[in-house]
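User: Hi! I'm working on a homework problem where we have to compare a predicted structure to a textbook description. Could you give me the structure for the chain below?
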Amino acid sequence: MSDALLPKKNIAVLGAGFGGVAAARALGRALRRSAELRKLYDLIVIDRSAEHIYTPGLYEVATAAREDADPLTLKHTAAIPLEESFSGLPIRIIQDEVLGVEPSLRAETPAGILVPPSEYLIRLRDGGTIRAEYLVLALGAVVNDFGIPGVPKHGLVFKNFGDALRVRSAITETFQRTAQAHIVIAGGGATGVELTGELVSLTRHLRRAWKRDIRPRFTLVEAGERLLPGPPLIVAEIAKKRLERLGVTVRLHTRIIEVAEGTATVQAPEGANTRIAFDRFIWSGGIKPSPVLAGIVVPKDQRGRCTVDLDLTIHGENNLFAIGDLTCFADPATNQPLPSVATIAMAEGSIAAINVLARINRQPLRHYHPPKHTPMIVPVCGKWAIAYVAGFTAAGFSVFLLRLAADLRYFLKVLPPLKALRFFLRSAAVYFRND
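Assistant: Happy to help. Predicted structure tokens:
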């Protein structure tokens, strides 16, 4: 039987976050270049949404004044349609929710050793099942409230586009009702720091627009000993000083115990429990792997993340790759898990794509080598940002411009040039109004 008569097999990428989009685009370009590869394989991307969300811009969505932008306008500044990102590439997009992944029947050797499956079954909520010979798990993460009582009921979580809109509405309504509202933000990672700083900027903007003396208080609560875990301590110290100069109360070594109507119980450094009264409580305190992973039988660490080998395969599953927030990749140099940042997910996505193609061509797989210094750029109120890039730390307006350049660079990676430029300019025009 000729190759032309053989039924095609599937390469599937589950998830369209940073890692999933990077993997899909790299695989799509390879299929576009190779007619022989297209005869053998179809490339499928499965995600609940038809859009890729640029999450570094969500804090801007959450703090854009209602007078300046409606929800649809904001969506066009943070949501990139997958059809546009994959334009010109032989990629089939399936908008559906993944319920589970199961290996097809495994072969067994005479010695009783199970060999890796030749296919995987992907169970979907609306579309039945899909078979894939090669699978890239890029399902990402969800909010982790660590089981703290009251967080889901009395707090606003901050993870996706819908969350950002809910935060925007709630904060605006609170400021309209109470001129001296107290806003408590839990979580001192990049998301919490960015959001807190931009809420201060929103306050200044609304004070001018409404011609009202709005004087809210902001408290950023972090259970750890510092803000911004990951980069050197100097980065965290600069961010803390910047927030405090803006009037934000930063409470480190302070763990949220319980959240009730209008109050949060916290455990202070000395061990005593105290209560913090608030008008709004926003949770940005952590993430955990997609719940889909819990039902997939693969090795996991204590936090439920799947462990991967240096080539990003899941141990014992030759055709199954995992990338991004879903995984625990131990840096060979430090033996520490890599941070959950977009740059790492994208790099892993590219390596996973290379290794899928290598597996198809029966070539050696490439190892992923993490950067020695994971880059980080964190805006903190207005046209000011702090950066840790290539081992150097800088802060100020020039770093804010660097952040804009990084945004544009990313859009150029996932969109055609003209569309990328339009997306960037549209985003910048909306967000500059608050600064």
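For your comparison, note the following. The first strand starts at residue 9 and ends at 14. The chain has twelve helices and 26 strands. Good luck with the assignment!
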